[in-house]
Known about the structure:
binds NADP nicotinamide-adenine-dinucleotide phosphate; alpha/beta
Amino acid sequence: MHGILCMLLLHPMDAYLEQELGRRCRLLRFCWEDSPQDLRDDFLRTHGPSVRALVTVGASSGADAALIDALPRLEIIACYSVGFDGVDLARCRDRGVRVTNTPGVLTDDVADHAVGLAIAALRRIPLADSYVRAGQWKADGLGKYPLTTRFSDKRVGIIGLGRIGLAVAKRVEAFGCLVSYYQRRKLQGYPNYTYSPAAAELAANSDIRVVACSLNEQSRRIVSREVIEALGPSGVLVNVGRGAHVDEPELVAALAEGRLGAAGLDVFEDEPDVPEVLMALGNVVLAPHMGSGTRETRRAMAELVLGNLEAHVLRKPLLTPVA
Ligand code: NAP
């Protein structure tokens, strides 16, 4: 990778990845999210013309057209994520900029996390934890402790039966759950999983809805008011996709008013800002977008980013190209 003279890193990342990038090329670090526009402009004016590679996250603050245009010698954007909805792919294609992501290596962790969120939401695990820590078990016994809802045998509807969705399906089958799914293409070879041709129909036929699709114009707010109403007061929403998949104000209102039973949320529309109302609700389990956040997976993601950059410099085929 020594052929890449200048690499830009816009978000603090895995320490190993930063160390390896620093060892192999001239690394410019700039904290994009915490910097006001004038500082960003100054930085790009000074350093933009020398940047040939960008390592970023593919979520909302990935790389928009303005950033791509401010880097005239940019050759490759390596996303440290499987999602690349925050990267302006059309602009990259126009400019001939290559784009890579990190598919596959994070699938199992995100699926584990989705199932964990569903169980935590139904069995109210955070509530149980605080009940014990606050000394209520000792003081009040279990007489006033509320009963919870079973996870096993539920009907699970998955939006997006891709890598992560399929891994969720495999896991919940072991819990005796019935699986149905919605996405644009019906899959061949999965007779146990029922295809729903519409998102609202899927919600009406499932107790737990897991969002695991990629974000694009058709899937933005795919969990609409109609879908939330179809899930209903005993329904559970789990979102490990992107915050923008859900009509968040509707979700917050439905949870607060009991029109939706519970939710397990790893992603939010305006991360890291989480709607204040959710903080006080006992029927929601919140997580800071950490579906892939294990040491094992982050190392594998870092290796894939490095492998793609290495391949680019050596003019070999990219390992996991998106564009
Ligand atoms: P994948 O294998 O590419 O699967 C994406 C799935 O989404 C496909 O089955 C696709 O099916 C479906 N899809 C795409 N557009 C759709 C639409 N408009 N309506 C309904 N379904 C649609 O990707 P993956 O590896 O499973 O990752 C999925 C997503 O998970 C990523 O894009 C990312 O946003 C999210 N993610 C989150 C975390 C986390 O930490 N929470 C970590 C990793 C990934 P069709 O093309 O047939 O519609």
